[in-house]
Amino acid sequence: MNLQALNVDAASFVSANPWIILLIVWSAVWKLIALWKAARKGHMTIFIVLAILNTAGILEIIYLIVLHFKGEKEQKIQA
User: Fold this and answer.
1) Other Cβ atoms closer than 10 A to 40
2) What φ, ψ does residue 68 adopt, rounded to 5°?
3) What are the pLDDT tens digits along the chain (79 aa)?
4) How far from 53 is each of 3, 13, 21, 27, CA to CA, in Å?
5) Is the pTM higher than 0.70?
6) Which of 67-73's residues contact partners 24+ apart within 8 Å by CB, and which partners?
7) b (16+ CB within 10 A) / e for 3-19
8) How far apart are CA 58 and CA 26, in angstroms?
């Protein structure tokens, strides 16, 4: 396999589809936020799942929303 041809193809793909960079950044930001929250809460299973699966931020956003509502519910119970 010619690696130089592979690099040219990847570069032309990215230049033809600039939205792919936006998708990568979007996914990375949500992944880092969700991984940080999962690690701080001690949710090891969720941490591993989020670290392995790439879902363009969808699974990460769902986790953060569930975590947010769970936190609000716990605060209301304690108050």
Assistant:
1) 9
2) -65, -50
3) 555 555 667 778 778 888 888 888 988 999 999 999 999 989 899 899 888 888 888 888 888 888 877 766 665 565 5
4) 27, 23, 18, 11
5) no
6) 67/37, 67/41
7) eeeeeeeeeeeeeeeee
8) 10
65: tokens are: 């929303």
> Which tokens is 74 given?
């716990």
Q: Tokens 């949500």 label which residue?
A: 30
Place of tokens 């040219």: 8
Which amino acid does the sequence have at 59?
L
Token representation of residue 21? 């960079």
* CA distance linking residue 54 with residue 7, whole number of Å: 23
